[in-house]
Prior knowledge:
- The structure is a single chain.
- The chain is an alpha+beta fold.
- The protein has two helices and five strands; from the N terminus they run αβββαββ.
- A five-stranded antiparallel beta sheet has the order 1-2-3-5-4, covered by helices on one side.
- The radius of gyration is 14 Å and the shape is globular.
Amino acid sequence: MSTIFSKIINREIPADIVYEDDLVTAFRDINPQASTHILIVPNKEIPTVNDVSAEDEQRLGRLFVVAKKIAEQEGIAENGYRLLINCGKHANQEVFHLHMHILGGRPLGPILSRP
Length: 115
Ligand code: 5GP
């Protein structure tokens, strides 16, 4: 079963795609938590960071290269932004296709708050 993100990458369901290349695809989050909230996803399905292997180094490195490019495009590079990757239950990971969030456009506050 392919993930919802694979369906976006394969154009089976719509999304606001802002960047794509041979290794990664980036699209706007459907439920944005900041004025810029974009997900950068390896085209290969890797469920979580726990499933990463050495063979993935190039595609995962590409996430950072593309994050920098998108931050510039979105005009958030100078003021700063947050890159976030959730892994598993305690991090509330919802979609089991590894992805990097890029969040910006407002002060984001401390990274963690106690419930
Ligand atoms: P996670 O909690 O797994 O790190 O984040 C999953 C993110 O995917 C959430 O921010 C959620 O809003 C976003 N998301 C879930 N389903 C879809 C979808 O179908 N399209 C888009 N564009 N984003 C989605």
